[in-house]
Amino acid sequence: MRMGTEGRDDEQEARHKSDLVSLGSGDAASANAKPGSLIVNETVFSDGFVPDAPLHRHVEMATIAESVKSDTPHHMWLYGKPGTGKTVVLRHVLKQTCGRSADGYIEIDCWEMNTYHRVIDQVARQLDRASRKRTPFEDRTRGFARQDVEDYLRESPLVIVLDQIDQLCLRERNAILYNLAQIGRVSLACVSTGLEALMELDPRVRSRLNPATVHFRPYFSPELTAILKQRAEQGLRLGAWTEDVLRKMAELANGDARLAIRLLRESARLAAGDRTDRIMPRHVHAAWKPLWREASSWRLSRLTEHHRLIYEHTPEQGSIRSDRLRHFYLHTCETRQLSPVAPRTYAKYLQRLIQARFLAESPAPGRKNLHLIRRCAATP
Ligand SMILES: Nc1ncnc2c1ncn2[C@@H]1O[C@H](COP(=O)(O)OP(=O)(O)OP(=O)(O)O)[C@@H](O)[C@H]1O
Ligand SMILES: [Mg+2]
C-alpha cells in the first residue's frame, strides 16, 4: 500500500526524486552505467516506476481525473488485462490531482488486505503516517479505533484505491465495498482484470457503488514500441538499442507493457553479457522464452485455487475431455476438503483459462465433447 501525497513515504519519494534527477538520455546518462553494462538506470525498469507522462492513455486519464475532481465522491472501476497500465495511469493522475490535498489517496493491495477490518486498519496506518497534525488513530492500548477512522472519513475527502479487487472472495468483496461505499466522502477506485468481479456483486452493493467504468485495452504494437522507446531513452546507454529491436519486443509482448519492459531489460543484460554494445535480435529471442514462462506462472499464481486445480488436471501431453476434467476437479476438491464451485462458475473459470491462453480447445472438429489441452509454458 502506498500513499500518494507529498511528504509521505518520504524515503521512497526522495529516492524516486533522486532517480528522476539522474535520468536523461545521452552522454550524461551513459556516464552512470557500470562498466560493461548497457543499463544506466535500473529504476526505470522497476514495476513501481511512474513515468512523468504515461503514453497513449489520454482518454482513460481524462475520465479518471474528472471522477476524482468532482465535488461529490464518485467511484471508479478500472479493468483490463495485466500490463495495460491501470496502476501506473491511476497513480499518475492521482499524484497530479490529489497531491496537494490533506490526505491525498491511499493504495490498498487487496491480495494482502482481504477483509474490511484489515482495509480500515491500513487506511488508519497510512493516515497516521501522512498527518502530523491530527491525533493518531492508533492507540497502543486498543489498536486502531475503527469508529474514529470511519468518522474521520465521513468528513474528509479521500480516494481509496482497491487494487486487485478481483482477488477477494465474493463475500469479502461485497462486505468491503458495501461498507466503504457508504462512508460519506470516500471515492473508491477499484482495479481488476475484468468486469465480472463487478457484475457478480450483490445488486445492492453494485447500485450503491455505481462506478464509472474505465477499460484499459491491451496496447497496440506501435504504442508498446513508444513505451519501450521512452524507457530505453531513460534507462539505457546511448546507442544500445534500435527501433527495430524495440518493435520486435513490442510484437512479442502482445499488448502487455510490463512484459515488454522486462524483455527490454533482460535483452540489455544478455547483450552486455555477450560483450556487445547494442541489443541484437538474438538477445531478444534468448530473453523471451524464460520471461514468458515466468510471466505465465505469475499470472497463474494470481488466479484462484480452483482455476489452478482445473489447469493442473489438464495433461501436458494430449488432451482431456471436459467432463473428465470436471470429474477430476470434483474428486480433488473432495480429497482436499474444498467446496467445489457451482457448475456455472466452473464454466466461467474454464473460459477464463482459455481466454488467458492457459488452456486451449483441442482442434478436433466433429467431436461431441469439448476437449482441452494445456498451453501455458509450452507455447510462448
Ligand atoms: N502508458 C504507459 N506509458 C508508460 N509506461 C507504461 C504505460 N502503461 C504501462 N506502463 C508500464 O508498464 C508496466 C506495467 O504497468 P501497470 O503496472 O500499470 O499494469 P497493470 O495494468 O496495473 O497490470 P496488472 O493488472 O498486472 O497489475 C509498468 O512498468 C508501467 O510503468
Ligand atoms: Mg496493477
Walk me through this protein's architecture.
This protein has three domains: 10-52 and 219-300, Helicase, Ruva Protein, domain 3; 58-216, P-loop containing nucleotide triphosphate hydrolases (Rossmann fold, 3-Layer(aba) Sandwich); 303-374, Aspartate Aminotransferase, domain 1. The chain is built from 16 helices and ten strands. It has helices at residues 10-21, 27-30, 58-69, 86-98, 116-130, 146-155, 170-181, 196-199, 203-209, 221-235, 243-253, 257-273, 281-301, 305-312, 322-335, 343-355, and strands at 76-80, 105-109, 138-139, 143-144, 158-163, 186-192, 212-216, 320-321, 359-361, 371-374. It has a five-stranded parallel sheet with strand order 2-5-6-1-7, with helices on both faces. Strand 5 (158-163), helix 7 and strand 6 form a beta-alpha-beta unit. Helix 10 (221-235) packs across helix 12 and helix 14 packs across helix 16. The longest helix has 21 residues, at 281-301. 34% of the residues are buried. Magnesium ion binds at residues 86-87, 163.
Q: What's the helical proportion of residues?
A: 40-55%
Which ranges are low-confidence, i.e. pLDDT below 50, for 5 or more consecutive residues?
A: 1-28
Based on CA atoms alone, the radius of gyration comes out at 23 Å
Biggest beta-sheet profile: 5 strands, parallel
Which CATH-level-2 architecture of the largest domain? 3-Layer(aba) Sandwich
CATH topology value of the largest domain: Rossmann fold
CATH superfamily of the largest domain: P-loop containing nucleotide triphosphate hydrolases
Q: What hetero molecules are in the model?
A: adenosine-5'-triphosphate, magnesium ion
Instruction: Please give the order of strands in the largest beta sheet.
Output: 2-5-6-1-7
CATH class assignment of the largest domain = Alpha Beta
